[in-house]
From TrEMBL:
Molecular-function annotations in GO: ATP binding; ATP hydrolysis activity; ATPase-coupled transmembrane transporter activity
Localization per Swiss-Prot or TrEMBL: Cell membrane
Gene3D superfamilies linked to this entry: P-loop containing nucleotide triphosphate hydrolases
Stretches assigned to the ABC transporter domain: 12-228
Organism this protein belongs to: marine sediment metagenome
Stretches assigned to coiled coil: none
Signal peptide, first to last residue: none
Entry similarity comment: Belongs to the ABC transporter superfamily.
Protein name as catalogued: ABC transporter domain-containing protein
Length: 228
């Protein structure tokens, strides 16, 4: 990853965030700042708290501490705007694909934004082209290959045109060719990108900076070169 000068504005600010599932502590005093337009990786072993952290970005979970998106606090009153700004791509595409056809899956989010039918159709066409899914409009998502389902799931998020795109384990169960293709897609996105993964190499290949999470705590932050 080349050194790229990033803007001084922050898309994501997390300060002293802690969260527990019952008595089990999942996050302990986590603080991070992610710059606008940055590709930022969060790596660590299973159970480190990576996915839990991700779910705080759009208010699915709410812990003790502070989370801001583009300067806006992630609190109950701001959730509608926060969820327009932050798109989550879940590890399992089944969690995001539930309509009869690919076209309907991708159109679902923009329709819920209250956009006109013409604008929704334009976004669907543009996003399917971006994901190399032209011709898939009338196909059933659950009849596609796993890699194709992952691309459709990403398309459902990109059609919302979020400012922040956050991926949970995007490289899991993908062969090397599919990993390479997904990295190319991620690098082409005009958004702040956050990648949560146990797989270190693909994250280091496409991220400007990374944080290492262990036992719910951030233990190191730096560029791939600094952490290598």
């Amino acid at each position: 990853m080349e050194n790229v000068k990033m803007p001084d504005s922050f898309a994501v600010e997390i300060k002293n965030l802690s969260f527990a599932y019952g008595k089990d502590s999942a996050l302990k005093n986590v603080s991070l700042k992610i710059r606008s337009g940055e590709r930022f990786g969060i790596i660590g072993p299973s159970g480190a708290g990576k996915s839990t952290l991700l779910l705080h970005l759009n208010g699915i979970l709410s812990g003790d501490g502070e989370v801001k998106i583009d300067g806006l606090p992630v609190i109950k009153e701001s959730l509608p705007e926060i969820r327009r700004k932050v798109g989550l791509v879940f590890q399992n595409p089944d969690d995001q694909l539930f309509n009869p056809t690919v076209e309907e899956d991708v159109a679902f989010g923009p329709l819920n934004l209250g956009l006109s039918r013409e604008e929704v159709e334009a976004r669907v066409r543009e996003t399917l082209k971006q994901m190399n899914l032209e011709g898939f409009e009338t196909k059933t998502s659950h009849h596609l290959s796993y890699g194709e389902q992952k691309r459709v799931a990403l398309a459902t998020v990109l059609a919302m045109q979020p400012e922040v795109v956050a991926f949970d384990e995007p490289f899991s169960n993908l062969d090397p060719a599919m990993v390479k293709h997904l990295i190319e897609i991620i690098e082409s996105l005009d958004a702040t990108v956050i990648l949560v993964s146990q797989q270190i190499l693909p994250v280091m290949a496409c991220c400007h900076r990374l944080a290492i999470l262990k036992d719910g705590q951030v233990i190191r932050v730096g560029t791939p070169a600094e952490l290598a």
